[in-house]
Write a structure and sequence with these properties.
By secondary structure, the chain is of the alpha+beta class. It has 2 helices and 4 strands.
């Protein structure tokens, strides 16, 4: 049985806005890298849009990250659908078309 990895609390600070995230110990580098990238992006937005308030720049940043997330999510869902089609085709070629059930939530297949 696998042991659960210890989790740690990390304080993130984006231009004075502080919040805590709880992550597995192995995920702390990713949190710090994300914080660094977001700080740089926010700084860039503030320089490019000097007449905008901090709140407006943070809203632009949130929107840009969210739109990127949803684009990646749609691409992932399309990739899963394509993989499921390929699994069905492979099962059909192997003569097992009646025995294969695709679990779309996990992207796995199982025999009945």
């Amino acid at each position: 049985m696998k042991s659960k990895e210890n989790k740690i609390n990390i304080e993130v600070n984006l231009n004075g806005t502080r919040f805590t995230v709880v992550v597995p110990f192995s995920g702390q580098d990713a949190v710090r890298a994300t914080e660094t990238e977001m700080r740089a992006y926010l700084k860039d937005l503030r320089e490019k849009h000097s007449t905008k308030s901090l709140a407006e720049c943070m809203a632009m940043m949130a929107y840009n990250y969210a739109s990127g997330y949803f684009a990646l999510k749609a691409r992932h869902e399309a990739d899963i659908a394509e993989a499921e089609d390929l699994l069905r085709d492979a099962a059909h070629m192997c003569g097992e078309v009646d025995r294969v059930d695709i679990d779309s939530e996990f992207g796995e297949f199982s025999e009945y």
